[in-house]
Design goal:
Length: 790
């Protein structure tokens, strides 16, 4: 049936929504209360055969656009639309539906629209208006629940209720149902995952299959291989952001309309979204749904599937934690949202206008809809960036009230209402120059005292940690003492997406701990997958340990983003040093690695390394003048490998090739054959030890002890004694330096250590299973855990 015959406007319903909006704005106690009640009415939603659409449209007021020039544009593909196809041209039927408005809100309702689901595609929509010159302008839906072609294209009407009703983990949620919302407790530990590099497939569906495979093997008591082991032993999985991100600055667009369009029909050149991004370059618009790049099928159901496989995991359910980014928008957000959303530029792009009640309510509604996919917990990125300008004091102030609203949000999944567990990354007063010294990492914890389970990233988890530089551990001693006394509500560990990225940017000429490995690659890999550091984190320190999959897989990682055109060369210049840390001549020579750079003339690692010696210096000395950089590169003798004669276009091609090649190089599947089963098994045993001794999360008590062996004598030995209800755990770890010399760990003068009954429970790789107790020589990255009464 033609679209114009199938879909009819329901003007009475739209007028009813506009009237309800009017009542709320006129009679609510505050403007924020009104917008909080209006926000759930926004976006495209399905109720039986009727679809409703709500938009916050202050830009129409700014332009004084009359209601007769505003319509809902509905687009329906005339032929097959395959969301798994890389490229296609599709012709759409088009109709325009009338709207009802009240002040800055616009509503529409229609009967007969096709809503998308797992099996079928839906109609696409957006708001449009025409100006006095009969030029049409689009307003996209920031609360869209399906964006097959990204945040800068019309949205797909999606049957969210049907998607959530079909979820397969209802029994999991039912156990938490009650008269009051359930509050989720902290997990024992967390696995942090970047979906595109976690599996060869690089999608949520591929990651779901990985957990399904492990689940079946666990259920059938089959042997786990190292690839399985690095995923196992965790209470929770935290995904790096899965929201739509920026797109290519200079194109191509994923939705490109061709010439010849009429009011009844348009033809669109469609490209399956294929950007690579580490997840944090978001545009706020579309935050309620899933980045289409991560969807194998193009269906947001894949995120529900992933939640389900975690919650139904054999022997013990795993929690799902979403990482959300509401503290800023990339500058591309200016093309997706009206300017009222923004409060001005910052180092990331744009500040959000948190004091605008409509913006505040819409952003919280985006959070509510996203978490309702089935997350048990939420990690808030960059909480120190939630700020507003205080005109009275002429300063930026932290919006802690907004953070309170985030953690006070009641979610509902499968009929169960609950409060997710919340973690905030907050390093205030960052970016103040002395932030590493000044930050307490407790600002949010102390401001939300009514919630004892609010967490923050701890000081050893924040960005600038380099555990492969000599002296690191004793230089951090004052922070470690803080962890011991107040770390119960901190995320612990030194390997996450931020620390590993920062590690690859360290100058190799610094005082590097060469005892970690024979090459720079070995040093970096062991630094962030260090058995002694992990033993310290899991068997001694308070808090909730978190591991980054790329670190435990000894895969690579970096700042991955291929959308930049203007600053792409500069970003690559900053990342160039990672070549020294993560790529050796052999890895570069592997046929499948760095194929784009090889095609551009960098046939060997040495060719690329020489180019990378010049590029960062020229970026700095020319203050990033690309024309000047190209001219200077052409004067190098002997000539550099590459295009022959450098142009600005060549520099941008090289930058793009580096990002795309590194994205492929960082995939965990590339490291599978090199995984050491002794290390992966040890780490799994260590994680299971923590899960069996959850009391270790608490701060050290009066009977506990932690110190380093003195005199230091050229090595750092940490010792820890923890006691809880008759159970005792004694840990000794060699953090750095030369060999300890032979000694008996159980004969050190440590309070509580005296007496018999100790059992060696854990040994780092390199210490044989025949070691039970007695004299031993500990070397860098070695450690032991003894238990008693357990």
């Amino acid at each position: 049936m033609p679209l114009k015959d199938r879909v009819t406007p329901e003007t009475g319903v739209a007028e009813g929504l506009a009237y309800k909006c009017r009542q709320l704005l006129n009679h609510s106690e505050t403007a924020f209360d009104a917008h909080t009640a209006i926000a759930p009415m926004l976006g495209g939603q399905v109720d039986g055969d009727v679809a409703t659409f709500g938009f916050w449209t202050p830009e129409l007021q700014d332009q004084r656009v009359p209601e007769g020039d505003v319509f809902l544009e509905v687009l329906s593909p005339k032929g097959p639309l395959d969301l798994t196809r890389a490229h296609q041209q599709v012709t759409f039927d088009r109709i325009y539906l009338p709207v009802s408005r009240y002040e800055a809100h616009t509503f529409c309702a229609a009967r007969g629209m096709m809503a998308g689901n797992r099996e079928q595609g839906g109609d696409f929509y957006c708001l449009v208006w025409r100006d006095a010159q009969d030029t049409w302008h689009r307003i996209l839906d920031p609360l869209a629940m399906s964006l097959p072609f990204g945040a800068f294209a019309p949205a797909e009407l999606y049957d969210v209720k049907a998607m959530l009703d079909r979820r397969g983990d209802k029994a999991y949620w039912a156990q938490f149902a009650g008269d009051t919302p359930h509050k989720f407790d902290p997990p024992a530990n967390i696995l942090q995952i970047h979906v595109p590099t976690a599996t060869a497939g690089g999608t949520l569906a591929a990651l779901t299959r990985q957990f399904e495979r492990m689940g079946e093997r666990v259920a059938n008591d089959l042997t786990l291989d190292p690839l399985d082991q690095i995923f196992m032993g965790y209470d929770a999985v935290q995904l790096l952001p899965v929201e739509p991100t920026t797109t290519y600055e200079t194109g191509p667009a994923f939705w490109e309309e061709l010439d010849g369009a009429t009011d009844e029909e348009i033809t669109v050149d469609l490209t399956r979204p294929d950007t690579t991004n580490w997840g944090y370059d978001i545009v706020i618009s579309g935050m309620a749904t899933v980045n289409p790049v991560l969807l194998e099928s193009g269906r947001p159901d894949e995120l529900v599937d992933f939640a389900t496989v975690l919650h139904n995991f054999p022997t013990r359910p795993k929690k799902l934690i979403f990482d959300v980014v509401f503290g800023h928008s990339d500058n591309q957000g200016l093309d997706a949202l009206n300017h009222h959303f923004f409060a001005g530029p910052n180092m990331y792009g744009q500040n959000m206008d948190y004091k605008n009640p409509a913006v505040r309510a819409i952003m919280l509604e985006l959070q509510r809809r996203k978490v309702n996919f089935g997350a048990d917990g939420v990690r808030v990125d960059g909480a120190q960036d939630f700020k507003w300008w205080d005109a009275g004091t002429q300063e930026l102030r932290h919006d802690d009230d907004y953070l309170d609203l985030m953690s006070d949000m009641v979610q509902e999944v499968a009929g169960t209402k609950y409060y997710p567990w919340f973690v905030f990354e907050d390093g205030r007063p960052w970016p103040q120059e002395d932030w590493e010294l000044s930050s307490t990492y407790r600002a949010v914890i102390e401001n939300q005292r009514d919630d004892p389970d609010v967490f923050q990233w701890g000081p050893l988890t924040f960005a600038h940690n380099t555990p492969f530089i000599y002296g690191f551990w004793l230089s951090k001693w004052w922070r470690i003492k803080e962890v011991l006394s107040v770390g119960a509500n901190w995320i612990s560990g030194t390997a996450n997406h931020d620390t590993l990225r920062r590690g690859t940017q360290v100058n190799p000429k610094l005082n590097i701990n060469t005892r970690l490995g024979d090459t720079q690659m070995e040093i970096l890999e062991k630094a962030y997958d260090n058995p002694a550091v992990s033993m310290l984190t899991y068997a001694a320190l308070p808090g909730v340990p978190m591991d980054f999959l790329n670190a435990t897989a000894r895969a690579n990682w970096g700042f991955i983003r291929n959308q930049d055109d203007k600053y792409g060369v500069k970003v690559v210049a900053e990342e160039a040093i990672s070549l020294k840390w993560q790529v050796d001549e052999y890895r570069y020579s592997v046929p499948g690695n760095f194929r784009r750079l090889k095609e551009l003339g960098y046939e060997t690692r040495a060719d690329l390394a020489r180019f990378f010696e010049f590029l960062p210096a020229l970026v700095e000395v020319t203050e990033y003048d690309l024309d000047h950089i190209a001219k200077l590169l052409n004067q190098v003798e002997p000539p550099l490998a590459g295009p022959g004669t450098f142009t600005v276009s060549d520099l941008k091609k090289i930058a793009r090739a580096w990002m795309d090649d590194m994205h492929e190089y960082c995939n965990v599947s590339n490291s599978m054959s090199a995984l050491d089963e002794r290390q992966t098994q040890f780490m799994l045993d260590l994680r299971n030890f923590r899960r069996a001794n959850r009391w270790l999360r608490q701060n050290l008590g009066p009977e506990d002890y932690f110190d380093y062996v003195q005199p230091v004598d050229g090595r750092v030995l940490f010792t820890s004694y923890r006691k809880h209800e008759g159970r005792e755990v004694y840990t000794i770890t060699h953090m750095e330096g030369g060999p300890s010399g032979e000694f008996d760990p159980l004969r050190l003068k440590i309070p509580g250590l005296k007496g018999a009954g100790w059992t060696c429970a854990l040994r780092t790789p390199g210490i044989g299973p025949d070691y039970i107790s007695g004299p031993i020589v500990l070397r860098d990255s070695m450690g032991l855990v003894f238990t008693r009464g357990m």
